[in-house]
Amino acid sequence: MSLQDVPLCPRCGVQYPQAVDPAECPVCTDEREYVDWGGQRWTTVARLRADGFRGEVREEVRGLWGVGTTPDLGIAQRALLVPGEGGNVLWDCTALLDDDTVARVHELGGVAAIAISHPHYYSTMAAWGREFDAPIHVHAADRDWVPRGVEVAPWDGDALEVLPGRMLLHLGVHFAGGTVLHWADGVDGRGALCAGDIVTVVPDRRWVGFMYSYPNLIPAHPDTVRRAVRILSGVRYASLFGAWWGHVVQGDAHDAVVRSAQRYLRHIGLTPNL
């Protein structure tokens, strides 16, 4: 069966190349997410295309291209094409890979490697990996969330350089394998962090947040937050890119992460020492 025609959950955007229980999406029935109030629904990429959904490729900032879906689908995240020596890293993934998106990404240099922050953004990673003949890097702590029939390259430990200048860092926020990507030369050479919603940019873009579940309002464990900040203290970054268009901290992102963690700890009644 073509990947255009296999089940895809429109609530989270994750595609299942092999059969799943049609009563439920494993991602949405987890306590971090939820099933739509009207019950579980399924669609396919072919049906989404017929319904008018399309890919969108545009610059997030100069030199950094984002890939999204219009209208919004699932969690509505956009992916990023992170450039550098050896080719682009596709950071995170989107649920719709159509012909125009494929052509535009090829024009921008294609995809040499795929790296996913956590299971909510696995989406159509199998189709992306097949189209661009790119390995899919998923932290081993989240390996059990990978849908059957999807081949990934699991990695372990705290860090992995997937391509020169693009380093995956295991923070463990949101999911056990929650990962961010450090782009050493990013944004005018000052360094950037592609964080998905492992470290999420909040509406007041001077700050970030740390959550176990966003829709169900379950906070991240303070020890997890402290560990994440310690790991990030070892890399240099002035910008931080969240999971959605425009969710960007510019200029003082490293300080924003530290002061946000301190504020977080204070508001759950703990000493804000990191």
Task: Name the descriptors.
single chain; 274 residues; alpha+beta; Metallo-beta-lactamase, Chain A; 6-stranded mixed β-sheet; 17 strands; 21% helix; 24% strand; globular
Concise account of the structure shown:
The chain contains seven helices and 17 strands. The chain has helices at residues 26-29, 45-50, 99-107, 125-132, 186-189, 222-232, 253-267, and strands at residues 54-61, 64-70, 79-82, 89-91, 113-115, 136-139, 153-155, 159-163, 166-170, 179-183, 192-196, 200-201, 208-209, 211-213, 218-219, 239-242, 248-249.
Question: What can you tell me about this protein's structure?
Answer:
This is Metallo-beta-lactamase domain-containing protein. InterPro entries: RibonucZ/Hydroxyglut_hydro. It comes from Pseudonocardia endophytica. Helix content is 21%, strand content 24%. By secondary structure, it is an alpha+beta fold. The protein has one domain: Ribonuclease Z/Hydroxyacylglutathione hydrolase-like (Metallo-beta-lactamase, Chain A, 4-Layer Sandwich), CATH 3.60.15. The strands form four sheets. A seven-stranded mixed sheet has the order 1-2-3-4-5-6-7, with helices on one face. A six-stranded mixed sheet has the order 8-9-10-11-16-17, with helices on one face. A two-stranded antiparallel sheet has the order 12-13. Helix 6 (222-232) packs antiparallel against helix 7.
